[in-house]
Amino acid sequence: MQQAIEEGYILDVLKNYTSYDTAFRIAESSKRHLQAVDLVDETEATKKLMRWVSLHPTNIVQKVQIIVEHYRANVRHLLDGHAKAMVVTSSREHAVRYKEAIDAYIAKNGYRIATLVAFSGTLTAEQVPGAHLAGVEPPYSEANLNTGLRGRSLPTAFASDDFQLLIVANKYQTGFDQPLLSAMYVDKRLSGVTAVQTLSRLNRTYPAAGKDTTYVLDFVNDPQEILDSFLPYFRDAQLTEVTDVDKLHDIRAKLDAAGVYTDAEVEAFTEAYLASAKHGAHTAPLKAAADRFNGRYEDAIATDNRADLDELELFRKDVGTFVRLYDFLSQIVNYHDTSLEKRSLYLRLLQPRLTGRRDTDPIDFSTVELTHIKQARAAELDLDLASGEATPLKPVDAAGSGASRDPRMVRLAEVLARINELFADEDFTPAEQQSWVEGLVTVLSADPVIRTQAAANTRAQFMASPDLGTAVSEAVLTNTANHGRMADLYFERAELQLELRQLLGELVHEAVARTR
Protein backbone atom coordinates (compact mmCIF):
# COMPACT_ATOMS: atom_id res chain seq x y z
CA MET A 1 0.00 0.00 0.00
CA GLN A 2 2.78 2.42 0.88
CA GLN A 3 4.54 1.91 -2.45
CA ALA A 4 1.28 2.24 -4.40
CA ILE A 5 0.51 5.52 -2.61
CA GLU A 6 4.01 6.92 -3.10
CA GLU A 7 3.98 6.04 -6.81
CA GLY A 8 0.55 7.58 -7.32
CA TYR A 9 -1.42 4.44 -8.12
CA ILE A 10 -3.82 4.87 -5.19
CA LEU A 11 -4.62 7.60 -2.65
CA ASP A 12 -4.19 7.54 1.13
CA VAL A 13 -7.82 7.51 2.26
CA LEU A 14 -6.96 8.24 5.92
CA LYS A 15 -5.54 11.72 5.27
CA ASN A 16 -8.81 13.53 5.96
CA TYR A 17 -10.59 11.44 8.58
CA THR A 18 -13.20 13.06 10.83
CA SER A 19 -14.84 11.18 13.68
CA TYR A 20 -18.12 12.05 15.39
CA ASP A 21 -19.54 11.13 18.76
CA THR A 22 -23.25 10.71 19.38
CA ALA A 23 -24.53 11.85 22.76
CA PHE A 24 -28.15 11.18 23.67
CA ARG A 25 -30.56 11.00 26.58
CA ILE A 26 -33.64 8.82 26.85
CA ALA A 27 -36.48 8.89 29.34
CA GLU A 28 -39.73 7.14 30.09
CA SER A 29 -42.74 8.86 28.62
CA SER A 30 -45.03 10.75 30.96
CA LYS A 31 -47.83 8.64 29.48
CA ARG A 32 -46.42 5.53 31.13
CA HIS A 33 -48.56 3.83 33.77
CA LEU A 34 -46.52 3.93 36.97
CA GLN A 35 -47.82 0.60 38.23
CA ALA A 36 -46.54 -1.27 35.17
CA VAL A 37 -43.33 -3.21 35.68
CA ASP A 38 -41.44 -4.66 32.70
CA LEU A 39 -38.73 -7.23 33.25
CA VAL A 40 -36.36 -7.61 30.30
CA ASP A 41 -33.03 -9.24 29.58
CA GLU A 42 -30.48 -6.47 30.12
CA THR A 43 -28.13 -7.43 27.29
CA GLU A 44 -30.91 -7.95 24.77
CA ALA A 45 -32.71 -4.78 25.82
CA THR A 46 -29.53 -2.70 25.55
CA LYS A 47 -28.78 -4.04 22.08
CA LYS A 48 -32.31 -3.36 20.85
CA LEU A 49 -32.41 0.05 22.48
CA MET A 50 -29.18 1.11 20.75
CA ARG A 51 -30.64 -0.03 17.44
CA TRP A 52 -33.81 1.92 18.23
CA VAL A 53 -31.72 5.04 18.83
CA SER A 54 -29.71 4.47 15.63
CA LEU A 55 -32.94 4.28 13.62
CA HIS A 56 -34.66 7.15 15.41
CA PRO A 57 -35.72 9.80 12.86
CA THR A 58 -34.10 12.62 14.86
CA ASN A 59 -30.77 10.80 14.93
CA ILE A 60 -30.82 10.06 11.20
CA VAL A 61 -31.98 13.57 10.30
CA GLN A 62 -29.08 15.10 12.24
CA LYS A 63 -26.58 12.87 10.46
CA VAL A 64 -28.21 13.54 7.10
CA GLN A 65 -27.77 17.27 7.58
CA ILE A 66 -24.08 16.78 8.37
CA ILE A 67 -23.62 14.47 5.37
CA VAL A 68 -25.40 16.59 2.79
CA GLU A 69 -23.93 19.89 3.92
CA HIS A 70 -20.43 18.43 4.10
CA TYR A 71 -20.82 17.05 0.60
CA ARG A 72 -22.02 20.40 -0.74
CA ALA A 73 -19.28 22.42 0.99
CA ASN A 74 -16.28 20.12 0.58
CA VAL A 75 -16.87 17.51 -2.11
CA ARG A 76 -19.36 18.59 -4.78
CA HIS A 77 -16.94 20.99 -6.50
CA LEU A 78 -14.10 18.42 -6.75
CA LEU A 79 -13.24 16.68 -10.02
CA ASP A 80 -14.69 19.52 -12.07
CA GLY A 81 -18.00 19.15 -10.27
CA HIS A 82 -18.32 15.38 -10.83
CA ALA A 83 -17.23 14.11 -7.39
CA LYS A 84 -19.45 11.55 -5.70
CA ALA A 85 -19.90 10.13 -2.20
CA MET A 86 -20.99 6.90 -0.53
CA VAL A 87 -23.06 6.53 2.66
CA VAL A 88 -22.27 3.22 4.41
CA THR A 89 -25.12 1.98 6.63
CA SER A 90 -25.36 -0.99 8.98
CA SER A 91 -28.49 -2.68 7.64
CA ARG A 92 -31.00 -2.69 4.83
CA GLU A 93 -33.51 -0.89 7.04
CA HIS A 94 -30.94 1.80 7.80
CA ALA A 95 -30.29 2.19 4.06
CA VAL A 96 -33.98 2.73 3.34
CA ARG A 97 -34.29 5.20 6.23
CA TYR A 98 -31.28 7.15 4.98
CA LYS A 99 -32.69 7.21 1.45
CA GLU A 100 -35.97 8.56 2.78
CA ALA A 101 -34.31 11.21 4.98
CA ILE A 102 -31.72 12.41 2.45
CA ASP A 103 -34.29 12.73 -0.34
CA ALA A 104 -36.57 14.68 1.99
CA TYR A 105 -33.74 16.99 3.10
CA ILE A 106 -32.51 17.82 -0.40
CA ALA A 107 -36.09 18.38 -1.60
CA LYS A 108 -36.83 20.71 1.32
CA ASN A 109 -33.73 22.77 0.58
CA GLY A 110 -34.03 22.64 -3.20
CA TYR A 111 -30.58 21.11 -3.67
CA ARG A 112 -29.70 19.58 -7.03
CA ILE A 113 -28.47 16.29 -5.60
CA ALA A 114 -29.83 12.83 -6.38
CA THR A 115 -29.38 9.56 -4.51
CA LEU A 116 -29.23 5.84 -5.25
CA VAL A 117 -29.59 3.03 -2.71
CA ALA A 118 -28.04 -0.43 -2.93
CA PHE A 119 -28.99 -3.57 -1.02
CA SER A 120 -30.01 -7.15 -1.78
CA GLY A 121 -33.50 -8.57 -1.70
CA THR A 122 -36.66 -6.81 -0.59
CA LEU A 123 -38.05 -5.28 2.61
CA THR A 124 -41.69 -5.44 3.63
CA ALA A 125 -43.65 -2.65 5.28
CA GLU A 126 -43.33 -4.51 8.59
CA GLN A 127 -39.54 -4.46 8.27
CA VAL A 128 -39.48 -0.70 7.71
CA PRO A 129 -42.46 0.51 9.75
CA GLY A 130 -43.63 4.04 9.15
CA ALA A 131 -41.47 4.66 6.09
CA HIS A 132 -42.78 7.23 3.62
CA LEU A 133 -41.00 7.24 0.29
CA ALA A 134 -42.77 9.32 -2.32
CA GLY A 135 -44.46 7.21 -4.98
CA VAL A 136 -43.02 3.93 -3.67
CA GLU A 137 -45.09 1.08 -2.26
CA PRO A 138 -43.59 -1.80 -0.28
CA PRO A 139 -41.97 -4.23 -0.58
CA TYR A 140 -38.96 -1.94 -0.99
CA SER A 141 -36.16 -2.93 -3.33
CA GLU A 142 -33.48 -1.39 -5.50
CA ALA A 143 -35.89 -1.59 -8.43
CA ASN A 144 -38.62 0.64 -6.98
CA LEU A 145 -36.47 2.91 -4.80
CA ASN A 146 -34.06 3.95 -7.56
CA THR A 147 -36.03 6.02 -10.04
CA GLY A 148 -34.38 7.46 -13.10
CA LEU A 149 -32.19 4.47 -13.94
CA ARG A 150 -33.72 4.30 -17.44
CA GLY A 151 -32.63 0.72 -17.95
CA ARG A 152 -29.09 1.30 -16.72
CA SER A 153 -27.38 -0.81 -14.09
CA LEU A 154 -26.85 0.90 -10.77
CA PRO A 155 -23.05 1.30 -11.20
CA THR A 156 -23.54 2.74 -14.69
CA ALA A 157 -26.20 5.20 -13.50
CA PHE A 158 -24.02 6.27 -10.55
CA ALA A 159 -21.14 7.00 -12.93
CA SER A 160 -23.30 9.53 -14.79
CA ASP A 161 -23.98 13.11 -13.74
CA ASP A 162 -27.54 12.13 -12.74
CA PHE A 163 -26.61 10.87 -9.25
CA GLN A 164 -24.20 12.05 -6.56
CA LEU A 165 -24.81 9.99 -3.40
CA LEU A 166 -24.85 6.19 -3.17
CA ILE A 167 -26.36 4.71 0.02
CA VAL A 168 -25.28 1.10 0.65
CA ALA A 169 -25.94 -1.77 3.02
CA ASN A 170 -23.15 -4.37 2.54
CA LYS A 171 -23.41 -4.12 -1.23
CA TYR A 172 -20.57 -2.27 -3.02
CA GLN A 173 -18.42 -2.13 0.12
CA THR A 174 -15.96 -4.38 -1.71
CA GLY A 175 -14.99 -4.71 -5.35
CA PHE A 176 -16.67 -1.46 -6.42
CA ASP A 177 -14.44 0.58 -8.71
CA GLN A 178 -15.59 4.18 -9.16
CA PRO A 179 -12.76 6.77 -9.47
CA LEU A 180 -15.23 9.66 -9.01
CA LEU A 181 -15.90 8.53 -5.44
CA SER A 182 -14.29 11.17 -3.21
CA ALA A 183 -16.05 10.97 0.16
CA MET A 184 -17.46 8.33 2.44
CA TYR A 185 -19.90 8.78 5.33
CA VAL A 186 -19.73 5.78 7.66
CA ASP A 187 -22.53 4.77 10.01
CA LYS A 188 -21.52 1.15 10.44
CA ARG A 189 -19.05 -0.73 12.62
CA LEU A 190 -15.93 -1.61 10.63
CA SER A 191 -12.77 -3.45 11.60
CA GLY A 192 -9.95 -5.51 10.15
CA VAL A 193 -9.92 -6.27 6.45
CA THR A 194 -13.56 -5.13 6.14
CA ALA A 195 -12.54 -1.61 7.18
CA VAL A 196 -9.69 -1.64 4.66
CA GLN A 197 -11.86 -2.95 1.83
CA THR A 198 -14.68 -0.49 2.56
CA LEU A 199 -12.67 2.71 2.91
CA SER A 200 -10.47 1.71 -0.01
CA ARG A 201 -13.41 2.32 -2.34
CA LEU A 202 -12.11 5.91 -2.17
CA ASN A 203 -8.52 5.24 -3.13
CA ARG A 204 -8.94 5.15 -6.93
CA THR A 205 -7.03 7.93 -8.65
CA TYR A 206 -8.50 10.12 -11.41
CA PRO A 207 -5.59 11.96 -13.04
CA ALA A 208 -7.78 13.57 -15.72
CA ALA A 209 -9.51 15.67 -13.07
CA GLY A 210 -6.59 15.90 -10.66
CA LYS A 211 -8.08 13.80 -7.88
CA ASP A 212 -5.84 14.21 -4.84
CA THR A 213 -8.24 14.54 -1.92
CA THR A 214 -10.68 12.19 -0.18
CA TYR A 215 -12.83 12.60 2.92
CA VAL A 216 -14.08 10.13 5.52
CA LEU A 217 -16.70 11.16 8.10
CA ASP A 218 -17.20 8.37 10.62
CA PHE A 219 -20.09 8.38 13.09
CA VAL A 220 -19.37 5.13 14.95
CA ASN A 221 -15.79 3.83 14.71
CA ASP A 222 -12.72 4.55 16.84
CA PRO A 223 -10.02 6.20 14.67
CA GLN A 224 -7.28 4.14 16.32
CA GLU A 225 -9.07 0.89 15.45
CA ILE A 226 -9.37 2.03 11.84
CA LEU A 227 -5.66 2.88 11.74
CA ASP A 228 -4.79 -0.49 13.29
CA SER A 229 -6.87 -2.22 10.61
CA PHE A 230 -4.84 -0.58 7.83
CA LEU A 231 -1.36 -1.00 9.29
CA PRO A 232 -0.83 -4.70 8.41
CA TYR A 233 -1.25 -3.83 4.72
CA PHE A 234 0.72 -0.58 4.60
CA ARG A 235 4.41 -1.45 4.36
CA ASP A 236 4.88 -5.15 3.88
CA ALA A 237 1.85 -7.38 4.27
CA GLN A 238 3.08 -10.83 5.25
CA LEU A 239 1.33 -14.11 5.91
CA THR A 240 2.89 -16.38 8.50
CA GLU A 241 1.70 -19.45 6.57
CA VAL A 242 -0.38 -20.40 3.52
CA THR A 243 -4.12 -21.06 3.33
CA ASP A 244 -5.48 -24.56 2.73
CA VAL A 245 -8.45 -24.14 0.36
CA ASP A 246 -9.91 -27.51 1.39
CA LYS A 247 -10.55 -26.23 4.92
CA LEU A 248 -13.88 -24.91 3.69
CA HIS A 249 -15.16 -28.44 3.09
CA ASP A 250 -13.96 -29.50 6.54
CA ILE A 251 -15.85 -26.67 8.26
CA ARG A 252 -18.97 -27.36 6.19
CA ALA A 253 -18.94 -31.03 7.26
CA LYS A 254 -18.40 -30.01 10.87
CA LEU A 255 -21.33 -27.57 10.81
CA ASP A 256 -23.64 -30.03 9.05
CA ALA A 257 -22.90 -32.68 11.66
CA ALA A 258 -23.85 -30.39 14.56
CA GLY A 259 -27.57 -30.92 13.91
CA VAL A 260 -28.51 -27.25 14.25
CA TYR A 261 -29.92 -26.99 10.71
CA THR A 262 -31.01 -29.46 8.05
CA ASP A 263 -30.32 -29.73 4.33
CA ALA A 264 -34.03 -29.19 3.72
CA GLU A 265 -33.95 -25.90 5.62
CA VAL A 266 -30.95 -24.67 3.65
CA GLU A 267 -32.67 -25.57 0.37
CA ALA A 268 -35.97 -23.94 1.39
CA PHE A 269 -34.18 -20.78 2.48
CA THR A 270 -32.11 -20.53 -0.72
CA GLU A 271 -35.09 -21.05 -3.00
CA ALA A 272 -37.16 -18.39 -1.20
CA TYR A 273 -34.28 -15.94 -0.82
CA LEU A 274 -33.19 -16.02 -4.45
CA ALA A 275 -36.79 -15.83 -5.65
CA SER A 276 -37.29 -12.62 -3.62
CA ALA A 277 -40.35 -14.19 -2.05
CA LYS A 278 -42.20 -12.79 0.93
CA HIS A 279 -40.10 -12.10 3.99
CA GLY A 280 -41.49 -15.03 5.97
CA ALA A 281 -40.68 -17.56 3.29
CA HIS A 282 -36.93 -17.32 3.77
CA THR A 283 -36.94 -16.39 7.46
CA ALA A 284 -38.84 -19.50 8.54
CA PRO A 285 -35.89 -21.88 7.85
CA LEU A 286 -33.58 -19.45 9.66
CA LYS A 287 -35.90 -19.26 12.66
CA ALA A 288 -36.16 -23.04 12.89
CA ALA A 289 -32.40 -23.45 13.19
CA ALA A 290 -32.00 -20.43 15.49
CA ASP A 291 -34.72 -21.74 17.82
CA ARG A 292 -33.00 -25.11 17.87
CA PHE A 293 -29.63 -23.58 18.75
CA ASN A 294 -30.96 -21.09 21.29
CA GLY A 295 -33.15 -23.71 22.97
CA ARG A 296 -30.17 -26.01 23.43
CA TYR A 297 -28.09 -23.14 24.72
CA GLU A 298 -30.63 -22.15 27.38
CA ASP A 299 -31.09 -25.78 28.41
CA ALA A 300 -27.32 -26.16 28.78
CA ILE A 301 -27.19 -23.07 30.98
CA ALA A 302 -30.12 -24.28 33.10
CA THR A 303 -28.48 -27.66 33.69
CA ASP A 304 -24.98 -26.21 33.96
CA ASN A 305 -23.81 -28.50 31.14
CA ARG A 306 -20.43 -27.04 30.24
CA ALA A 307 -19.74 -29.63 27.57
CA ASP A 308 -22.86 -28.66 25.62
CA LEU A 309 -22.11 -24.97 26.07
CA ASP A 310 -18.63 -25.45 24.66
CA GLU A 311 -20.02 -27.32 21.65
CA LEU A 312 -22.59 -24.61 20.95
CA GLU A 313 -20.07 -21.80 21.33
CA LEU A 314 -17.77 -23.63 18.94
CA PHE A 315 -20.60 -24.01 16.42
CA ARG A 316 -21.33 -20.28 16.60
CA LYS A 317 -17.64 -19.48 16.05
CA ASP A 318 -17.41 -21.92 13.13
CA VAL A 319 -20.40 -20.30 11.42
CA GLY A 320 -18.56 -16.98 11.36
CA THR A 321 -15.38 -18.69 10.19
CA PHE A 322 -17.17 -20.41 7.31
CA VAL A 323 -18.76 -17.16 6.09
CA ARG A 324 -15.48 -15.23 6.22
CA LEU A 325 -13.48 -18.03 4.65
CA TYR A 326 -15.97 -18.52 1.82
CA ASP A 327 -16.01 -14.78 1.10
CA PHE A 328 -12.24 -14.88 0.77
CA LEU A 329 -11.60 -18.16 -1.03
CA SER A 330 -14.53 -18.02 -3.44
CA GLN A 331 -12.95 -14.99 -5.09
CA ILE A 332 -9.93 -17.03 -6.17
CA VAL A 333 -11.11 -20.64 -6.22
CA ASN A 334 -13.99 -22.09 -8.24
CA TYR A 335 -15.28 -24.86 -6.01
CA HIS A 336 -17.90 -26.04 -8.54
CA ASP A 337 -20.16 -26.71 -5.54
CA THR A 338 -23.42 -24.77 -5.24
CA SER A 339 -24.02 -26.21 -1.77
CA LEU A 340 -21.19 -24.06 -0.44
CA GLU A 341 -22.76 -20.92 -1.88
CA LYS A 342 -26.14 -21.88 -0.44
CA ARG A 343 -24.65 -22.39 3.00
CA SER A 344 -22.79 -19.11 2.74
CA LEU A 345 -26.07 -17.27 2.16
CA TYR A 346 -27.90 -19.25 4.83
CA LEU A 347 -25.23 -19.07 7.54
CA ARG A 348 -24.59 -15.37 6.94
CA LEU A 349 -28.16 -14.57 7.96
CA LEU A 350 -28.32 -17.29 10.62
CA GLN A 351 -25.26 -16.01 12.50
CA PRO A 352 -26.86 -12.92 14.13
CA ARG A 353 -29.80 -15.09 15.26
CA LEU A 354 -27.56 -17.38 17.31
CA THR A 355 -28.01 -15.35 20.48
CA GLY A 356 -28.15 -18.12 23.05
CA ARG A 357 -31.62 -16.95 24.04
CA ARG A 358 -35.01 -18.22 22.93
CA ASP A 359 -37.14 -15.72 21.07
CA THR A 360 -39.04 -13.54 23.48
CA ASP A 361 -41.80 -11.04 22.98
CA PRO A 362 -40.59 -7.85 21.31
CA ILE A 363 -39.50 -5.16 23.74
CA ASP A 364 -41.96 -2.27 23.71
CA PHE A 365 -40.22 1.08 23.29
CA SER A 366 -43.46 3.01 22.85
CA THR A 367 -43.06 4.53 26.32
CA VAL A 368 -39.44 5.55 25.69
CA GLU A 369 -38.66 9.06 24.51
CA LEU A 370 -35.44 10.34 22.98
CA THR A 371 -35.26 13.64 24.83
CA HIS A 372 -31.84 14.83 23.63
CA ILE A 373 -29.42 13.81 20.91
CA LYS A 374 -26.43 15.56 19.41
CA GLN A 375 -23.75 14.66 16.90
CA ALA A 376 -20.50 16.20 18.10
CA ARG A 377 -17.40 16.38 15.93
CA ALA A 378 -14.78 14.52 17.94
CA ALA A 379 -11.62 15.03 15.87
CA GLU A 380 -10.32 15.90 12.43
CA LEU A 381 -7.34 13.65 11.86
CA ASP A 382 -4.62 12.65 9.47
CA LEU A 383 -4.30 9.01 10.47
CA ASP A 384 -0.58 8.54 9.82
CA LEU A 385 0.05 5.06 8.48
CA ALA A 386 3.80 5.63 8.53
CA SER A 387 3.80 6.02 12.32
CA GLY A 388 2.52 2.58 13.27
CA GLU A 389 3.88 -0.92 13.43
CA ALA A 390 2.04 -3.85 11.89
CA THR A 391 1.96 -7.51 12.86
CA PRO A 392 1.99 -10.31 10.26
CA LEU A 393 -1.39 -11.42 9.00
CA LYS A 394 -2.63 -14.76 10.27
CA PRO A 395 -3.66 -17.28 7.63
CA VAL A 396 -6.92 -19.20 7.67
CA ASP A 397 -5.27 -22.61 7.57
CA ALA A 398 -6.46 -23.43 11.10
CA ALA A 399 -10.01 -22.24 10.47
CA GLY A 400 -12.65 -24.51 11.92
CA SER A 401 -10.10 -26.77 13.54
CA GLY A 402 -11.22 -25.89 17.05
CA ALA A 403 -12.73 -28.53 19.26
CA SER A 404 -14.55 -28.29 22.53
CA ARG A 405 -12.29 -29.06 25.44
CA ASP A 406 -12.90 -31.56 28.20
CA PRO A 407 -14.73 -29.32 30.70
CA ARG A 408 -13.42 -31.31 33.66
CA MET A 409 -9.79 -30.80 32.63
CA VAL A 410 -10.41 -27.14 31.86
CA ARG A 411 -12.04 -26.52 35.20
CA LEU A 412 -9.38 -28.49 37.07
CA ALA A 413 -6.65 -26.41 35.41
CA GLU A 414 -8.46 -23.23 36.45
CA VAL A 415 -8.80 -24.43 40.03
CA LEU A 416 -5.15 -25.47 40.25
CA ALA A 417 -4.07 -22.09 38.90
CA ARG A 418 -6.10 -20.41 41.63
CA ILE A 419 -4.77 -22.77 44.31
CA ASN A 420 -1.26 -21.89 43.17
CA GLU A 421 -2.08 -18.20 43.72
CA LEU A 422 -3.50 -18.90 47.18
CA PHE A 423 -0.37 -20.81 48.16
CA ALA A 424 1.99 -18.40 46.42
CA ASP A 425 4.09 -17.87 49.54
CA GLU A 426 4.47 -21.59 50.25
CA ASP A 427 6.84 -24.15 48.79
CA PHE A 428 4.32 -26.61 47.30
CA THR A 429 4.96 -28.21 43.94
CA PRO A 430 2.20 -28.29 41.29
CA ALA A 431 2.05 -32.08 41.66
CA GLU A 432 1.43 -31.77 45.42
CA GLN A 433 -1.32 -29.23 44.86
CA GLN A 434 -3.03 -31.35 42.19
CA SER A 435 -2.81 -34.49 44.35
CA TRP A 436 -4.40 -32.61 47.28
CA VAL A 437 -7.25 -31.14 45.21
CA GLU A 438 -8.07 -34.40 43.43
CA GLY A 439 -8.04 -36.25 46.75
CA LEU A 440 -10.52 -33.79 48.24
CA VAL A 441 -12.82 -34.08 45.20
CA THR A 442 -12.77 -37.88 45.49
CA VAL A 443 -13.72 -37.75 49.19
CA LEU A 444 -16.48 -35.21 48.63
CA SER A 445 -17.93 -37.05 45.63
CA ALA A 446 -18.18 -40.22 47.73
CA ASP A 447 -20.08 -38.43 50.52
CA PRO A 448 -23.74 -39.62 50.11
CA VAL A 449 -25.25 -36.34 51.36
CA ILE A 450 -23.06 -34.18 49.11
CA ARG A 451 -23.56 -36.49 46.14
CA THR A 452 -27.36 -36.45 46.51
CA GLN A 453 -27.45 -32.67 46.79
CA ALA A 454 -25.13 -32.19 43.79
CA ALA A 455 -27.28 -34.51 41.66
CA ALA A 456 -30.59 -32.90 42.61
CA ASN A 457 -29.69 -29.20 42.37
CA THR A 458 -28.28 -26.66 39.99
CA ARG A 459 -24.73 -25.55 40.66
CA ALA A 460 -25.89 -22.28 42.24
CA GLN A 461 -28.28 -24.13 44.57
CA PHE A 462 -25.64 -26.71 45.44
CA MET A 463 -23.05 -24.04 46.24
CA ALA A 464 -25.48 -22.48 48.72
CA SER A 465 -25.85 -25.72 50.69
CA PRO A 466 -24.76 -25.34 54.36
CA ASP A 467 -23.59 -28.96 54.25
CA LEU A 468 -20.91 -28.21 51.67
CA GLY A 469 -18.68 -26.14 53.96
CA THR A 470 -18.80 -28.79 56.68
CA ALA A 471 -18.04 -31.55 54.19
CA VAL A 472 -15.04 -29.68 52.78
CA SER A 473 -13.55 -29.18 56.25
CA GLU A 474 -14.05 -32.86 57.08
CA ALA A 475 -12.43 -33.87 53.77
CA VAL A 476 -9.40 -31.70 54.54
CA LEU A 477 -9.10 -33.33 57.98
CA THR A 478 -9.20 -36.85 56.51
CA ASN A 479 -6.50 -35.90 54.02
CA THR A 480 -3.94 -34.59 56.55
CA ALA A 481 -1.69 -37.65 56.47
CA ASN A 482 -0.21 -36.77 53.11
CA HIS A 483 -0.89 -33.04 53.07
CA GLY A 484 -0.59 -31.90 56.67
CA ARG A 485 0.89 -28.46 55.93
CA MET A 486 -1.83 -27.66 53.39
CA ALA A 487 -4.48 -28.68 55.94
CA ASP A 488 -2.87 -26.42 58.56
CA LEU A 489 -2.95 -23.45 56.17
CA TYR A 490 -6.57 -24.19 55.31
CA PHE A 491 -7.68 -23.93 58.94
CA GLU A 492 -5.45 -20.89 59.59
CA ARG A 493 -6.86 -18.80 56.74
CA ALA A 494 -10.55 -17.95 56.68
CA GLU A 495 -10.33 -16.57 53.13
CA LEU A 496 -8.80 -19.84 51.95
CA GLN A 497 -11.67 -21.80 53.48
CA LEU A 498 -14.27 -19.72 51.62
CA GLU A 499 -12.53 -19.85 48.27
CA LEU A 500 -11.64 -23.56 48.46
CA ARG A 501 -15.25 -24.38 49.28
CA GLN A 502 -16.29 -22.56 46.10
CA LEU A 503 -13.63 -24.16 43.91
CA LEU A 504 -14.15 -27.70 45.20
CA GLY A 505 -17.93 -27.36 45.09
CA GLU A 506 -17.81 -26.58 41.38
CA LEU A 507 -15.55 -29.54 40.66
CA VAL A 508 -17.72 -31.91 42.69
CA HIS A 509 -20.93 -30.71 41.01
CA GLU A 510 -19.38 -31.32 37.59
CA ALA A 511 -18.05 -34.74 38.63
CA VAL A 512 -21.47 -35.86 39.85
CA ALA A 513 -23.21 -34.43 36.78
CA ARG A 514 -21.00 -36.53 34.49
CA THR A 515 -22.00 -39.75 36.26
CA ARG A 516 -25.74 -39.16 36.22
Automatic annotation (TrEMBL):
<dbReference type="Pfam" id="PF22679">
    <property type="entry name" value="T1R_D3-like"/>
</dbReference>
<dbReference type="InterPro" id="IPR055180">
    <property type="entry name" value="HsdR_RecA-like_helicase_dom_2"/>
</dbReference>
<feature type="domain" description="Restriction endonuclease type I HsdR second RecA-like helicase">
    <location>
        <begin position="161"/>
        <end position="219"/>
    </location>
</feature>
<dbReference type="InterPro" id="IPR027417">
    <property type="entry name" value="P-loop_NTPase"/>
</dbReference>
<protein>
    <recommendedName>
        <fullName>Restriction endonuclease type I HsdR second RecA-like helicase domain-containing protein</fullName>
    </recommendedName>
</protein>
